[in-house]
Input
Amino acid sequence: MLKFLHAADVHLDSPLRGLERYEGAPVDALRNATRRALENLVNLALDESVRLVLIAGDLYDGDWRDYNTGLFFAKQMGRLREAEIPVLLVAGNHDAQSRMTRSLRMPDNVVWFAVDAPETKTLDSLGVAVHGQGYARPAISEDLSAQFPRPRSGVLNIGLLHTALAGHPGHEPYAPCQLDALRAKGYDYWALGHVHAREVVCADPWIGFPGNIQGRHIRETGPKGAYVVARSETGHLTAEFRALDVVRWHDCRVAAEAGTDAADMLGAVEAAFGKVLAESAGLPSAVRVTVAGAVGRVAAHVERLAQDIRALANDYGQDRLWVEKVRLEADTLTPIRDIPEGPIRELMDVLDELEANPEGLAALGTTLTALDAKLPAALKHGPEAVSLTGPDAVGRLLREVRPLLLGRLLGKDEGP
Output
């Protein structure tokens, strides 16, 4: 039986975002999470006695100036060299920005594919031919797979490609290609990268994304890892996902109904925390708590609720659970129909009219342009970046501020 490991999107030394301001969070451990995940990948390869490791792009996370990142990777690859395990990689869009990709010397078991044209690496001792091409520049708009060679006869053919396929939300549409075109190549397996969510796109032939090996922020929730792929004596392929992450992200949603107060919320959050810890397999957990529904009453005291939720997380131990953010998501129909006629109702009507008027949103966005330029850099970049320009951004901000505004106006005299 032949086994190989399919991983992608290591983003080595990429920071975990959203926890650095949390009092008591183990910043050093969070900073090294991608390194520990890479160590887990190497351990998995050794424990499973795989014969080949494939990394489908974005080993690095841009042009790091600190060569310790690359030296750490080289050291881990040295462990695989001792076990005579070759490592084949294609450069992704982030690797194309990195000087380390081009210049840092690696152990001789590490092989990068060319970036100017597709090529084939044949491993005769394994009966495997891997076809691939890396990125010569960060943004690739052409279909790289179109020029991939025909499959070799008598061997297992694998395509190694960093691509968005026909497009994935949240990912740049790099190296676009169609599923039918990949199937038509006649390969036995397509090892894809770029999309950070695990996905089996096709089972025959097997085409899919393992996702990244360590979630880095709240948009990368759940287990992260790689596939261990086995080929039986009859040639049948099976791909089994194995988790490699060392910190796991969760988006916990709790429902607020009419009359729900902060005490009710804390009970619901505590139950959600228990579920998170049960699903995390002992890993430290980073959690966003979203209170959704009729949030008008709790919105009046959202700061206190957030602090109570963080205190509740501390009760589980600071080495197990951290709260990344507490946010409200209003069901706008519920609070509005309960608002009596008067100034508050008139204000909500104005917001409704503004949200439904693209020209009004655009005009407000133009007014806010000067303020947008003054936002701190920390608020303008990353997965939770804030934008004050454009009708979509302004409309989203209106929806987010509505529950807070209603809570202040309607609940200012209520107890927590």
Notes: The two ends are 62 Å apart (CA to CA).
